[in-house]
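Bit of a strange request maybe. I'm writing a small parser for structure token strings and I need a real example to test against, not something I typed by hand. Could someone generate the tokens for this chain?
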Amino acid sequence: MTDELDPEDSKIITLARSARARNGSPEGAAVRDETGRTYAATGVELPSLTLSAIQVAVAMAVSSGATALEAAALVSEADDPADTDLAVVQDLGNATLFLAGPDGALKGRYI
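Reply from user aminoacidic:
Good idea to test on real output. This should exercise your parser:
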């Protein structure tokens, strides 16, 4: 796997890192829709609602009118994304999910 990323893919990793740091969350996510708009989020944990950071970012994109994703990024200590995160990204097409560590280092690409 090469660590070379397109500048737009690096941008969503940076956005995901920023969301994670801003909220002090274990995970941050960002997605880029088919028009190039980006959405960054962290997870939600309420008594009646639990969503991962990827799920929140995808929901933000869909509620803003996105019909497809170009790419998604997840910043986490985890070694692999959750199956539910991969599924929600696939719901909007064949986008690549980039998994990065808190330092921004790429851990993997998932389609």
